[in-house]
Design goal:
The chain is of the alpha/beta class and about 325 residues long. The protein has helices at about 30-45, 55-60, 75-80, 95-100, 105-115, 135-145, 155-160, 165-175, 175-185, 200-205, 290-310, and strands at about 1-5, 15-20, 45-55, 90-95, 120-125, 150-155, 190-195, 210-215, 225-230, 235-245, 255-260, 270-280. It folds into 2 domains: about 1-165, HUPs (Rossmann fold, 3-Layer(aba) Sandwich), CATH 3.40.50.620; about 185-310, Elongation Factor Tu (Ef-tu), domain 3 (Beta Barrel), CATH 2.40.30.30.
């Protein structure tokens, strides 16, 4: 998959069959569009192309909106897109100046003059351009003038359960990992760096690796205890993960920490990936450390069973 980070990096794309969107999550609905894109590219003897944007438009248009949470960082999104068989990705830097580009100018200058698209495929409800004024109808208006083919993917064809990034964010915020996986087609994951913690887990017999998420807009699932998979370099390790404030010890800062099963090494400063398999329970405040340890033993047994079943699936 070729990635172009701006028009100035663009190389020729033969008979481009294009779609447009942020594609946050690269979920099953997105994959349905990309599958169709690939099929049409083969039919027309061309290449598939996703036109996407970074930063996320809301980061630029609403900089004071602090509640924005994304399913993917840009690097995560590109990794997921590469697994779909997509030929090309054009990342258009989203700026205030770019946001003023009208939908007609976008079609004429970018889709036609710059890219020479052979066909455009978009989701049934997709909007683009200044004030989201662009739509299927705008593309349809220009079709006889510029001669490209046009296709809209209806909701029922994208997915009978109508997948959306909003529904996935809600499932993750509810801690419903099973529902998020149905929508995404993969276990939700985040990436970060292992940092020094307070050593509380080690004193309890459950040493943990504390994870700092490096992207401020990355969505963190609901607080609680999870069965999780930790990937570091070529290793894939099982463990149980806690997100929260460690109320038994009157913690005041939210932390993400994982106890890795059957592992003796040092993970400090390593870049890692956490995949969430199942939420086991809420974070709880226990009367003392011994009561907490007893619950952690139960959590470990449950997490090991969940992860074993997941590996067999």
């Amino acid at each position: 998959m070729r990635v172009f980070r701006g028009i100035e990096e663009l190389l020729p794309i033969a008979h481009a069959v294009a779609t447009i969107g942020t594609f946050d999550g690269v979920h099953l609905g997105h994959r349905s569009v990309l599958d169709r894109l690939g099929m049409e590219a083969v039919r027309l003897g061309g290449e598939s192309l996703l036109i996407t944007f970074w930063p996320h438009p809301r980061m630029v248009l609403q900089p004071d909106y602090t509640d924005l949470r994304l399913l993917n960082t840009l690097d995560e999104k590109l990794e997921l897109l590469a697994s779909t068989g997509l030929d090309n990705v054009l990342i258009l830097p989203f700026t205030l100046d770019f946001a003023r580009t009208g939908s007609h100018d976008f079609v004429r200058q970018i889709l036609v003059s710059t890219l020479g698209v052979k066909k455009v495929i978009i989701g049934y409800d997709h909007h683009f351009g200044r004030n989201r004024e662009g739509s299927y109808e705008v593309l349809e208006e220009f079709q006889p003038i510029f001669g490209y083919e046009l296709e809209a993917i209806p909701a029922a064809q994208i997915d009978e359960i109508n997948v959306s990034s909003t529904k996935i964010r809600q499932a993750l915020s509810d801690g419903d990992m099973a529902r998020s996986r149905v929508f995404l087609g993969y276990h939700y994951f985040l990436q970060g760096t292992v940092v020094k913690g307070q050593g509380l887990g080690k004193n309890l017999g459950f040493p943990t690796a504390n994870i700092r998420v490096n992207h401020p807009f990355k969505l963190i699932p609901k607080d609680g205890v999870y069965a999780a998979i930790l990937k570091v370099a070529s290793l894939q390790l099982h463990g149980m993960l806690n997100i929260g404030f460690r109320p038994t010890f009157n913690g005041i800062e939210r932390s993400i920490e994982i106890h890795v099963f059957d592992f003796q090494g040092d993970l400090y400063a390593e870049d890692v990936r956490l995949s969430f398999v199942e939420r086991l329970r809420d974070e709880m405040k226990f009367p003392n450390a011994q009561a907490l340890v007893e619950q952690l033993n139960l959590d470990e047994a449950r997490a090991r069973w969940v992860l074993k079943q997941a590996s067999l699936a």
